[in-house]
Design a protein that fits this description.
Order of helices and strands: EEEHEEEHHHEHEHEEHEE
Largest sheet: 6 strands, mixed
Mean pLDDT: 86
Strand content: 15-25%
Oligomer: single chain
Helix content: 25-40%
Number of strands: 12
Shape: globular
Distance between the termini: 57 Å
Low-confidence stretches: none
Length: about 260
């Protein structure tokens, strides 16, 4: 299904008061960070988008596709990515990709190398075509799903829920999805992910409370925060590999391997 715009028309918050943001419009390639404390309504908003509600949910919101309500929801409208990505299929990675491609009428084997290439750019543990799906780690599973959504999935809308704890390169994941002309909604607490988006929607008391556009200063701060996070990621990886951290630099911690 081709989407030129998705529009969210406001409903009410938990107290039945009109939402302060009356309308949101996004186009392919756009991404929106959805922020707010736990219980503020982030997941409820994602659910409304996934169901393409027409005023029939508890929020009263309406979701329009190309300016029209959807009385019938296409199965190819939305792809969802969460922290709980697990496979139950007894198959190899290659078989999964080939079966998914065939189900969409696409050439199966042509998609295995590019999907693996993208997936391996996101996670620290290499994924090979002959690996069983059920032996993949959480990070590997999510990396594979992101690559599959970006390259193979026809869903034009991607809903991302708390990807910051997913064991992958979260920043590159967002860039990949938006780079493949998807519309991405990202519910997150991660400050860098928030600032990577051109806009962030602030949720409060179950309603859309504020819409903030990132300015030049915030963009600069986002890069500084990303550099800090890079150091933390490097330290985390070094510690997981049994190394001792002896010094930190802006780019890479110095470490020594622990001998048994």
């Amino acid at each position: 299904m081709r989407i030129d715009t998705i529009t969210i028309l406001s409903g009410t918050d938990k107290q039945g008061q009109p939402e302060r943001i009356s309308r949101l419009d996004l186009s392919p390639g756009d991404s929106l960070a959805i922020v707010g404390p736990t219980g503020s309504g982030k997941s409820e908003l994602l659910m409304d988008i996934e169901q393409a509600v027409i005023g029939d949910s508890c929020t009263g919101r309406k979701v329009l596709i190309n300016g029209k309500p959807q009385t019938e929801i296409s199965s190819n409208l939305v792809a969802t990515l969460s922290q709980k990505t697990n496979f139950v299929m007894d198959a190899t990675v290659a078989q999964f990709i080939e079966l998914h491609a065939e189900s969409k009428g696409k050439t199966a084997t042509n998609h295995v190398p590019p999907i693996l290439s993208v997936a391996n750019s996101l996670c620290g543990e290499p994924i090979t075509a002959d690996m069983g799906l059920q032996v993949l780690s959480g990070g590997q599973s999510r990396a594979l799903m992101i690559a599959d959504i970006a390259i193979l999935s026809d869903a034009p809308i991607v809903l991302i829920d708390e990807v910051e704890n997913a064991g992958i390169d979260k920043y590159k994941a967002l860039e990949i999805l938006c780079g493949h002309n998807k519309i991405a909604f990202c519910a997150t607490h991660d400050p860098v992910l928030i600032l990577m988006n051109k806009q962030r929607l602030v949720m409060a008391n179950g309603g859309m409370s504020d819409l903030i556009a990132a300015d030049t200063i915030e963009r600069h701060n986002a890069q500084s925060l990303k550099d800090m996070d890079s150091v933390l990621t490097s330290v985390r990886e070094a510690l997981r590999q049994g190394q001792i951290i002896t010094d930190l630099s802006p780019h890479q911690p110095r470490s020594e391997t622990v001998s048994a």
